Amino acid sequence: MSTPILEARGITRRFGGVVAVNDVNLVVGKGQIVGLIGPNGSGKSTMVNLVTGELNPDEGQFLFEGQDITGLPTYRRARAGMARSFQLLRLFTSLSVEDNLLLAHHMRMKTGIVDSILGRASGLAEEQAARRRARELLAWFDLEAFADKPASELSIGQQRMVELARGMMSEPTLFVLDEPAAGLSPPNVDKLILLIRRLRDEFGMSILLVEHVMRVVRDLCDHVVVLDSGVKIAEGKPDAVVKDPVVVEAYIGSGWKRRAQG
Ligand SMILES: Nc1ncnc2c1ncn2[C@@H]1O[C@H](COP(=O)(O)OP(=O)(O)OP(=O)(O)O)[C@@H](O)[C@H]1O
């Protein structure tokens, strides 16, 4: 197997007396879609924040394309090729859709904006390239018609697409998606599934996906990792994992059946 895009080795993170993530190993291979699931409070969001550098682990190591990135700040991970989407949308609702893409690009990469304000040639060239990329992505996501509209005028489903397009601005090789189906209607969930698959197939993207909607996990994931109380309790193919008695037991009482039908 080629070097995985992401490898988490023995990751532990505590909050006071709570061990939110406990000695977790996780591998995302190149071009793979790996699901991270588990009942509420099992440590998924903490793990995502550890992967992207919003949090640092107390123990363990992260490798990105074989390089140790443990302790690197978020923007350095973005430069290395990592992007994320947020469970609660973080769009600038008064800005246009296109400006959301451009601004996020500058903020994530910590580059360009000073140059462009000062009118430096390198900055201007980058600004033009970013604008071109934004337009291409808006077309790819079928959002061209909304480019100049304030994000607030879009439906939640459309805003989720903007969030994904925004993540793509930095040309990531690993996209970490935090509950992309949250709040979407069933037809929009179908669209999302197709779109995430296309992201992988057309851009060769690797994806780490946290998701409660089991249909999304079953349809998309090559491999699933299950957390419970911070511990990895199972992993494998989605169909086998959701039937694993240990996993079913962990979900009982936390609305698993309702979600599995979602
Ligand atoms: N900043 C924090 N301070 C203290 N405890 C925290 C913090 N963040 C998470 N925790 C605790 O860590 C554990 C894991 O929480 P986390 O949010 O990672 O779970 P989750 O699987 O993402 O849950 P959900 O599915 O509800 O989003 C929980 O017990 C939570 O209360």
Automatic annotation (TrEMBL):
InterPro entries for the chain: AAA+_ATPase, ABC_AA/LPS_Transport, ABC_transporter-like_ATP-bd, BCA_ABC_TP_C, P-loop_NTPase
- Report the leader peptide range: none
Please provide, in alphabetical order, the Gene Ontology terms of the cellular component aspect for this entry: plasma membrane
Database matches in Gene3D superfamilies: P-loop containing nucleotide triphosphate hydrolases (3.40.50.300)
Q: Which UniProt keywords apply?
A: ATP-binding, Nucleotide-binding, Transport
Which molecular function GO terms apply here?
ATP binding; ATP hydrolysis activity; L-isoleucine transmembrane transporter activity; L-phenylalanine transmembrane transporter activity; L-valine transmembrane transporter activity
Query: Domain ABC transporter, which positions?
Result: 6-254
Gene Ontology biological-process annotations? D-alanine transmembrane transport; L-alanine transport; L-isoleucine import across plasma membrane; L-valine import across plasma membrane
Protein's recorded name:
ABC transporter ATP-binding protein
Native species: Phreatobacter aquaticus
Q: Highest lineage ranks of the organism?
A: Bacteria, Pseudomonadati, Pseudomonadota, Alphaproteobacteria, Hyphomicrobiales
